[in-house]
C-alpha cells in the first residue's frame, strides 16, 4: 500500500475514533485540530475520499446510523429481485458475476486449486486479494488485524491449495472492485452449501441498503438457523464484494465483523455517503 493511501485510511480511522468519543458532533476546526491538520487540508482529504464534507460524513458515522439504515434502507431479500433492487445499485457501476464451487471440491480443502494472491490499496486500508481462474475467491483487510494474520486467515480457508504471488493477473478485477468504472468482476465462491446460500443472499443486498441476520436466514430457507447464518456471514471470504458489512442485528447494532468493526463502519459510511442514503 502506498504511503499516501495508508495516510488517508488512518485519517479516516482516527476521525471515527474521535467522533465516537465525542458527546456532541465536532466542528471542522476541532476535528482537524485533533488530526493535527489545518481545517482546509482535513476537509480536502475527506472530500477526496468520500466526496462529501466532514460534517456530512459525521452524520453517516453516527452511532445510531445503523438504526437509521435499518429503518429507512432495510432490504427484504425475498422481494429484492422483484422490485429490481439487486440489479443496478452497486457502486461505480460494478458488475458482479459469480460461480460456486461444488461441495465435493470444497471438502478437499482446495486440493488441485491454484490461487493467485497480491496486496492492493483500498479505501479501507491494505487489502489482500486472492483469485482462481474463475474469479476472486478471497478478499481480506489488514488495517485492524495486520498483514500476517490476514494472510494466514485466508490461506487457512483452503489449506491444500497452491498459492502464488501474481498481483498483475488480479489487478484488472481489483481496479473495478475498488472504484473503476465499467468492466466486470468475477467471483469464485468456495464454501460449504449453507455458506454459499448465505453469500448469495448477501449479494442481493443493494449498495446503501442493509438487512438483518434473521432476514438472511429466511432467504436461505433456514429461518431458525440464525446463529449458523451469522457464522456463515462471518466466514465470508470475499469481503466488500460479498457485502457482509450490510448485515445488522435486529436491534440496529452493527454486530461483529471479521476484519474489525472500524472497517465495517467505514464501509457503511463510505456507501451511504456515495449513495446519499
Question: Level of helix content?
Answer: 40-55%
Series of secondary-structure elements, N-terminal to C-terminal? HHHHHHHEHEEEHEHEHEHHEH
- Oligomeric status: single chain
Task: Please tally the helical runs, counting DSSP H or I stretches of 4 or more residues.
Answer: 14
If strands are numbered along the chain, what order do they take across the biggest sheet?
A: 4-3-2-5
Radius of gyration, CA atoms, in whole angstroms: 19 Å
What is the general shape?
Answer: globular
Poorly predicted spans: 79-94
Binned strand content: 5-15%
* Count of β-strands: 8
**Helix-strand category:** alpha/beta
Largest sheet: 4 strands, mixed
How far from one another are the termini? 30 Å
What's the mean pLDDT score? 80
Task: Describe the overall structure.
There is one protein chain. The chain is an alpha/beta fold and 277 residues long. 46% of the residues lie in helices and 14% in strands. It contains 14 helices and eight strands. A hairpin with a 6-residue loop joins β2 (114-120) and β3 (127-132). The longest helix is centred in the N-terminal third of the chain and has 19 residues, at 3-21.
In short:
With 277 residues, the chain is α/β, with parallel strands linked by helices.
Key structural traits:
four-stranded mixed sheet; two-stranded parallel ribbon; single chain; alpha/beta; 277 residues
What is the element layout, followed by pairings?
Layout: H1 3-21, H2 28-35, H3 39-50, H4 54-61, H5 65-72, H6 77-80, H7 85-88, E1 96-100, H8 103-106, E2 114-120, E3 127-132, E4 135-141, H9 147-155, E5 162-165, H10 167-177, E6 185-189, H11 193-202, E7 211-212, H12 213-219, H13 226-234, E8 247-248, H14 261-275
Parallel strand pairs: 1-6, 2-5, 7-8
Antiparallel strand pairs: 2-3, 3-4
Helix pairs in contact: 2-3, 4-14, 12-13
Amino acid at each position: 500500500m502506498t504511503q499516501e493511501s495508508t495516510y488517508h485510511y488512518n485519517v479516516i480511522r482516527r476521525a471515527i475514533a474521535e467522533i465516537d468519543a465525542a458527546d456532541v458532533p465536532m466542528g471542522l476546526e476541532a476535528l482537524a485540530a485533533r488530526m493535527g491538520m489545518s481545517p482546509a487540508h482535513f476537509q480536502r482529504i475527506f472530500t477526496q475520499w468520500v466526496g462529501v464534507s466532514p460534517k456530512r460524513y459525521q452524520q453517516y458515522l453516527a452511532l445510531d446510523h445503523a438504526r437509521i439504515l435499518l429503518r429507512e434502507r432495510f432490504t427484504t431479500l425475498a422481494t429484492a429481485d422483484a422490485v429490481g433492487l439487486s440489479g443496478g445499485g452497486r457502486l461505480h457501476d460494478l458488475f458482479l458475476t459469480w460461480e460456486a464451487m461444488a461441495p465435493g471440491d470444497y471438502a478437499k480443502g482446495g486440493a488441485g486449486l491454484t490461487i493467485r494472491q497480491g496486496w492492493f490499496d483500498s479505501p479501507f486500508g491494505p487489502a489482500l486479494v486472492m483469485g482462481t481462474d474463475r474469479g476472486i475467491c478471497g478478499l481480506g483487510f489488514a488495517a485492524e488485524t495486520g498483514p500476517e494474520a490476514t494472510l494466514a486467515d485466508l490461506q487457512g480457508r483452503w489449506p491444500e491449495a497452491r498459492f502464488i504471488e501474481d498481483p498483475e493477473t488480479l489487478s484488472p478485477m481489483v481496479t473495478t472492485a475498488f472504484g473503476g468504472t465499467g468492466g466486470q468482476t468475477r467471483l469464485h465462491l468456495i464454501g460449504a452449501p449453507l455458506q454459499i446460500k448465505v453469500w448469495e443472499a448477501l449479494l442481493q443486498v443493494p449498495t446503501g441498503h442493509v438487512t438483518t441476520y434473521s432476514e438472511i436466514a429466511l432467504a436461505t430457507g433456514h429461518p431458525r438457523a440464525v446463529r449458523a447464518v451469522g457464522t456463515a456471514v462471518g466466514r465470508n471470504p470475499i469481503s466488500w464484494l460479498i457485502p457482509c458489512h450490510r448485515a445488522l442485528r435486529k436491534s440496529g447494532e452493527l454486530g461483529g465483523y471479521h476484519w474489525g468493526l472500524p472497517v465495517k463502519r467505514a464501509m457503511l459510511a463510505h456507501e451511504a455517503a456515495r449513495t446519499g442514503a
